[in-house]
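Memo to structure team: turn this sequence into structure tokens by end of day. - J.P.
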Amino acid sequence: MKQILVQCGQDRIEVAVLENGKLAEYDNESRGTEQLAGNMYLGRVMRVLQGMQAAFLDIGLEKNAFLYIDDMLPAHLDKQPKEKPPVTELVQPGQILLVQVVKEPVGTKGARVTTHHSIPGRWGVYMPKADYIGVSRKIANEEERNRLKRAAESQVLPGEGFIVRTAAQGVPDSIISADLEELRERWRTVEELIEKPGPLPRKVYTDFGLLSRWVRDGFSEDVNELWVDDKEVHASIVTLLRTTAPVLCEHIRLFDNRAISLFATYEVDDQLQSGFKRKIWLDNGGYLVIDHTEALTVFDVNTGKYTGSVSLEQTAYDTNLMAAKDIARLLRLRDIGGLIVIDFIDMGIEANKQQVLDMLAQEIKKDRTKTVVVGWTKLGLVEMTRKKVKDGTHKLPVIRCVACDGNGWIWPK
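Reply from structure team:
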């Protein structure tokens, strides 16, 4: 059972995803604000650092944005040189570039940007200068992959790129074609804005707001219900879907109980607070300890109150299996990115270790953010990586705790 809950307040909109009653994802956006990732800016190169093979650009934010050399080279890997040229051959101070934010500013670091521009739609991602066609790896059926690739190839113009998204499985070619043309039209608008005189730096493209992004990226046929507690927002979602995915309209529900809030009904707030603690209890009595450092995030698995009844190996195996499922969920909920290390309880049987790894890989498939399970290290740890876009704690109404040197958060009363 998968549900999306949309709670609309006067100051902000909140979105929660429940899987079998458990909170798996959470996001919010204050009314009148926006996220930066996905936006495009016409910026000015301020510094070029040969030693870092990177450049810093003023794009109109508080801190200069970071542009690495890989994000300046052609998006198509076959067109990249075998050896990277000096960054000074690609950009010069004072040069004007169109860049897109791929990573939000975090802490003391500014936004990370790229010149590999992309505009996502419901069925695919349009890349005006990528010059290649791709199909989501999550689409396993080879015949369907080939059909979708042919559908995209028949519509792209020379030099354009397009990646077919997982949601496009079974979608007619004509709908994919219409999606591509609509995205192409958005890019044309960006090109027109670039040519117009105006102040520098300046924003020339804004990605969808929170609700539209969730309807576009997160609402698919595997969602049983989408609950909304506002009549106007409910109507706007229905209107949006009638043109892109009318079959999903029957899954939308209006929550009109004034005696209790939508989130309270599904215990979202309680799960949100418990889900961001350092110590997370598992259903069997085991627990996880989560520590964040500058370099990586560490999950430590412990048996806790669970003692089992067969053997130490079986106790460790049962706890590790449950932990693998919860870790995959917590990565999405807390939006943890970067390098991740998991210290599972030691197991002696190789088959058990493989099944724990398989469970982790299976649960990771639910994640819309690119995540790679590397595997077991020689020290018995599991390594994995998850694309970092923004700090998950930015979503929460919390402040860093000064008493513990910023390692904890204080929730409002």
